[in-house]
Amino acid sequence: MPFISQLIGRAVVDAEGILLGHIDEVFAIQKPAIQHPVLVSLAVSNKHEITYYPFSEVTALFASEISLAHPEGSLQRHEPGEDEIRLIDDVLDKQIIDTNGIRVVRVNDLEITRVNGSFYVSNVDIGSTGILRRIGMGKLADWINKVFPKSASSNKISWDFVELLVHDQFMRLKVPGEKIRELHPADLAELLSDMSHHEGRKLLDSMDIEQLADALEEVEPEFQASLVQEMPDERVADVLEEMSPDEAADLLAELPAERSEGLLELMEDEEAQEVRMLLSYPEDSAGGIMTTDVAAIRPGLTAAKAIEAIRDLEPDAESIFYIYVTDEQEHLLGVFSLSDLVLAKPGTLVSSFMHEKVVSANVLTKQDSLAQLIAKYNLLTIPVVDTENRLVGMVTADDALDKIIPTAWKKKLPRFYYYSRA
Amino acid sequence: MMKKSLRITLKRWAGLPVIRSLLLFFGVFGPATITAMADNDAGGVATYSVAGATLGYPILFLLLIITVLLAVTQEMGMRLTLVTRRGLADLIREKFGVKISLLIFAALVIANLGTLTVELAAVKVTSAMLNLPIIPFLIAIILIAGVVVTRGNYKLTQAIMLITSLFYLSYIVSAVKAQPDWGMAISNIFWPHGVDFTPAYMRNFLLIGMGVLGTTITPWGQFFISSFAYDKNIEAGKIIYSQLETYVGAFLTNFFSFFMVVATAATLFANHIPLTTGEEAAMAIKPFAGELAGTLFALGILNAGFMGLIVVSLCTAYAYAEFFGLQGSLDSNYKQSKPFYMIFILQLVIATVIVLFPGISLFKLAITTQTINAIALPLVFYYLIKLSSDKELMGKHANNGFQKWFTVISTVAIFAASLLTLAATFFPNLGR
């Protein structure tokens, strides 16, 4: 199998056998339809002078000399484009993300495969044989691969499962992150914490708003703040709109006051207003940790209509264990659980199966008292009301207990508590 | 659970700027202090003991220089890692390619193996002095080190290393028991005085001074601080606290070195008792400083050896993982990071076999190790300075002029001095 390591420094000759120079760089392009980048051009250096030739001129690549199709004077030249990847400078020795195993590994060599006259990068070699090949012990590497075929194949990753990490501005990859899109936001957050800030930002730049919001919600506010530090304001504002209001408020609280004010100005009025309200409450009060994403419906609906109404609201998964019942002015009237709703006959009115004695907290209730309420009544979420008993938000058990129970303990607690009537 | 009122009070405290800063500081605390403490490994303690016994208080003058040099270089490695989210070995591989990486890794493996052997030899000699059964004791120490690292996680290893660091306090007791002239000791930090500066003394000062420098500022120390800080996952935003920690670590380690030197200077130098090996110090100071001081001194060497074993062996394992792109983290389990843990254990086993083999000259081994370290150090510093001065890589955190030129000049000075030392070691009659 041919490898890119065998090409480094190899002599290049024209059709008449005259030496043109030695290979300095190999360029490839990742085309959207094909999983593997195709080799497009060669950089040939001859005493500090570098000439680029397209691959269409190459007649024999893996030979003792690389020969081109025409005499020197009539050879086509090539100007490497922005989207061409430098395989030797920017890929070899660098770290890549193996999206299959979700780990960061180092590229020791690249395997080249010829299909229909074009050369493609087929596999990434991350094993020790790749290193041997790089220091000129290719024969030993081949021998080892023959004796241990199993380890040879386990040290190769198909380019399908590879995502390049963007190292410095030299990186010529236009759209990183194609495969990253399919990762879970939590995995993505973990990868982000493995990268340098520069790379992390590049990766964030390549993601769409929704994805970005999901990933940011998975990391700590301090880290969030450092990630968005150099992002343009418009983009950050879009992301903030996409995030749940309480997360957005947390992030804004970490940013310098001037910047967060500017961002709030840029956000849609409705979202900005909610976030502003959240920011106005003390950090350790119910108002400070509540989310305004709360499912509330009217008491006059039937159970069947209520289910439809909830579907239309599309609340976050974490927030629909309890559904709160309010009147037109948002006054909190009652609560029912999803099981209440499912068990009720389709025709019964919400007001007849809801519980009217609702345990609620005021926006200024301290976090400690909140946690106590939640523990005492075994709640999953607790509604938060203003001084006139209008529903303004709710706090999940998770968030209320957050600062009181160390994270390590929280993981050991069961995720769902038994629901008892409030 | 704590009482509610207490909890609230604690929370209010945590909100205060001063306390918040302190909490953040302790959050990043660990890597730099452990690296600096391990620089005073068994070989280090032995060198400082010989220095105090042969040269008296004036050698303390070097401590100030060593502290600054250690602080500046360790800070560089720490900053490099926090900004780039990579270890020093990672960066060398990425920026300078596979051949340089292999070369440095080979030098590191050999030098570290040598250091480990010196470490174990010191443990062997000292345990014999304390009438401990040598072979079972060595095997027990290796087993403990192996179990802690392979079965435990980052936090446990860090905690054990930090607790181990506390044992350096024993040198303070030894020094106090030796009833030194504190005025002389402290004033000698700032200017060397109080002895006859004969040519023979100056020659010894250079030789032993270089030895002291060489055991404190090491290639493995540069790699280890970077890898260990990387494994801790410190955020770049906390860089200022980590920088502070490197200074604290450099100060602490030399603070303890001070007492090691004082303990032997006040007893052995004052009474003209020569030392050939550092381990003898524990025995030799007994008549002057008492049984307790001697025993504590010996225990201190054992402890330093244990710490050195783990840190140096981990250093090679980390470097291997970084150079060759494998998983290598104390927080991963044995299965995930098999090569990483294998390298760690293998080195300890090889070093143990070498030490238990009677025919091998430990003196030659120590000299060889020192030679490789002396040659590798400028190479490592070259890459460290080049990388941490790289504006593209480091942005606003790149080295400033002072940091860069101070280390460049120090590197050249260290290299020149180590060449002199080696020349003097191989040709004992040179310049006489």
- Count of discrete alpha- or pi-helical segments spanning 4 or more residues of chain B: 20
CATH superfamily of the domain at 296-412 in chain A: CBS-domain
What is the fold-level CATH name, i.e. the topology of the domain at 296-412 in chain A?
CBS-domain
The whole-angstrom Rg of chain B is: 21 Å
Estimate the strand proportion of chain B. under 5%
Give the end-to-end Cα distance of chain B, rounded to a whole number of Å.
72 Å
Task: Give the CATH level 1 class of the domain at 296-412 in chain A.
Answer: Alpha Beta
Sheet of most strands of chain A? 7 strands, mixed
Estimated helix fraction of chain A? 25-40%
Alpha-beta content class of chain A:
alpha+beta
CATH fold label of chain B: Amino acid/polyamine transporter I
Radius of gyration of chain A equals 30 Å
Number of domains of chain B: 1
Count of beta strands of chain A: 19
Helix content estimate of chain B: over 70%
Protein architecture, described:
The complex is a heterodimer of chains A (422) and B (432). Chain A is an alpha+beta fold. Among the domains of chain A are: 84 residues, PRC-barrel domain (SH3 type barrels); 83 residues, MgtE N-terminal fold, CATH 1.25.60.10; 117 residues, CBS-domain (Roll), CATH 3.10.580.10. Chain A has 19 helices and 19 strands. In chain A, strands 1, 2, 3, 4, 5, 6 and 7 form a 7-stranded mixed beta sheet that branches. In chain A, strands 9-8-13 form a 3-stranded antiparallel beta sheet, with no helix packed on it. A 3-stranded antiparallel beta sheet of chain A has the order 10-11-12. In chain A, helix 5 crosses helix 7. The longest helix of chain A has 12 residues. Chain A starts with 10 loop residues before the first strand and ends in a 10-residue tail after the last helix. By secondary structure, chain B is mostly helical. Chain B has a single domain, classed as Amino acid/polyamine transporter I (Up-down Bundle). Helices cover 79% and strands 0% of the residues of chain B. Chain B has 20 helices and no strands. In chain B, helix 6 packs antiparallel against helix 7, helix 9 packs parallel to helix 13 and helix 12 crosses helix 16. The radius of gyration of chain B is 21 Å and the shape is globular. At the A-B interface, strand 9, helix 2, helix 6 and helix 8 of A face helix 1 and helix 6 of B.
